[in-house]
Structure formats: structure tokens, C-alpha cells
Amino acid sequence: xxxxxxPAYNEGENINTASDTISGLLDSxxxxxxxxxxxxxxxxxxxxxxxxxxxxxxxxxxxxxxxNFGKEAAIFAGLEKAAECGCSCAVVIxxxxxxPPELIVQMHELWKDGYEVVEARKSSRGRESLVYxxxxxxxxxxxxxxxxxxxxxxxxxxxxxxKVIDALNAMQERQTxxxxxxxWVGFKTTHVSFEVxxxxxxxxxxxFRNLFKFALSSVTGFTNFPMHMMTVFGVLFMVxxxxxxxxxxxxxxLNKSMTGFTTVILLLLxxxxxxxxxxxxxxxxxxxxxxxxxxxxxxxxNEDTDRTKxxxxxx
Length: 315
Ligand code: UDP
Ligand code: MG
Known about the structure:
- It is built from 11 helices and 8 strands.
- It has helices spanning about 15-30, 45-55, 70-85, 105-110, 130-145, 160-170, 180-185, 210-220, 225-255, 260-295, 305-315; strands at about 1-10, 35-40, 60-65, 90, 115-125, 160, 190-195, 300-305.
- Magnesium ion binds near residues 94, 96, 199 and 204.
- Uridine-5'-diphosphate (UDP) binds near residues 8 and 11.
């Protein structure tokens, strides 16, 4: 059975269209499926609609968080639920249908051919601002050069075999980055390309601040490159110090010693800012360790359509 995992945050307008489109497509392709909605603590009527759908169609399920935990948590909740329901593979897709659902059938075919991870890669980035594009590009470049994971054009739209789902579910880390983790686990991978579609209803749920925090946490989660960079800077400064020392000594010997406070103040400022910068980087990693060792759950489930069904049947 194929599980379709759909994270949803304030997507009341999109739930019905998404589930109708996807079930229609999979029914006509004769694929045995279930749809799992992860309601990421929506404030609108998303959960009511999911519940109503689950009542009328047993193939539709949903879990609801106690608050907004973010898309990452919603995806992982979906993966856990899919494993619980005994899926043999699962596909993660956005609720706004920016990921063309027709591709699911093609991805499922590839899975049947023996591929264990089928990634859908963006052939173009859709309508995004220039700043956003530049930001995304430099982020992916940094990730590639430092961690070796090529995430260019990567999206969360992926089909995963049960083995991959189990591997991901076994990961202990709290701060996850689904896109990179599903590449990190390995397995037999292939990809298909898609054009990003315009959003169905509403607007994007990501603010620039959230994206920046997300990028920072992903970089620190996957590479120690920023810390290495500090060591490199340290070595460079040491070399400069030696050169400057020799120069000063020679000048003094020739009785041509330089005067000037500006250089001294400049050097102090540079070294001071480098030290602060370095401390800041170490601080990020320290904060990350702190977050991880608290061992809090990634998300808290408040309601589950399967559980409410059980309750009502016991009445
Ligand atoms: N989403 C979520 N939790 C959040 C933000 C977003 O579950 O905190 C879901 C959202 O409902 C959608 C998907 O993640 O199904 C992608 O979000 P969005 O379309 O806002 O992002 P974009 O397409 O602009 O990257
Ligand atoms: Mg979207």
C-alpha cells in the first residue's frame, strides 16, 4: 500500500481539492493507497475538514498536533503513522498542490522497478523573488561543498520505500531536515523533474525569518564547516602576525620604526570581531547540542482520526 503524506497548516481551502485530486488519480491508476494528513496545529477549519473526510472515506486519515511544530515535524509524524499503518512505500506531497500530483503515478512505477528513493526535483523554482532565489542558491552551494549532499532543486516531494521510512523513523535527532536526511540515508535513488505550480489557495506559510532560521539550523545540523572556517581564520591571522612582527623588527633595526595608532586600533577591532564571530559560531553548535540533549519529542499529537473512531465505536 502507498501512503500519501500531506503536511497541512491552515490549509482549510485546499484539503478537499487535494484529497479529491489525489484519490482520483490513484484510483484510475489502480494503486492501493491511503492519505495521511498531518495537521500542524492549524488555526482554521483544517482539522474539521480532515475529520469529515476521514469519516466518509476510510482511506483518509489524519493526525493533529497540539500546536504548530513546523513542516519537518509534520512530515515525520506522517512517516511514523504510515509505518504504523503498514505501508510498503510513502510519498510526501504539499497540500497546496504546488507539487504536481500526476507525478505520483510515475514515481510509483519507478518504485516498482526497484528504486527505493524517488526524488522529484524542481526544474525551475517557480515564481520567487530574486533575493529568495539568491539565498536558496548560496544555501545549497554551502551545503554541497561542506556536506557533499547535492540538494540543488531538491524538494520535499519524494517517494520512499518502507526500508527508507524505517531508517528515517529510527533517527534519534530532534532537529530534522527531511530533504537532506533522505539523501543522507542513501539507498537506490533516482529522480524525476517537475515544474513548480502556482499555489492553489492562500499564501506561503514561510516567512523570511523562518527560512533563515531553518537554513542556519540545517547547515549546523549537517556540517562542521563553519567551525573549521574559524580555525582557518586563526591560522591566517597567526601568519599575518609573524609577517608583521618580522617587518616591525626590521624597521626598528633600520631605525625607521613606524608610528601610528590607527593600525593598532584597526588590528584590535579586526581581532575582536573575529573572536566574537568565532564565539557566535561555537554558540550555535552548543545551542544545538543543548536542544538535542533535552530529548523532547519532535511533536505532540493531540488527536488522531483512528483514535477518535475507536472512541466513537466504543460508545
Ligand atoms: N506547512 C506545515 N507547517 C508549517 C508550514 C507549512 O505543515 O509550519 C505545510 C503547508 O501546509 C504545505 C507545505 O508545508 O502543505 C508547504 O508550505 P508552503 O506552501 O507554505 O511553502 P512553500 O510552498 O512556499 O515552500
Ligand atoms: Mg507551497
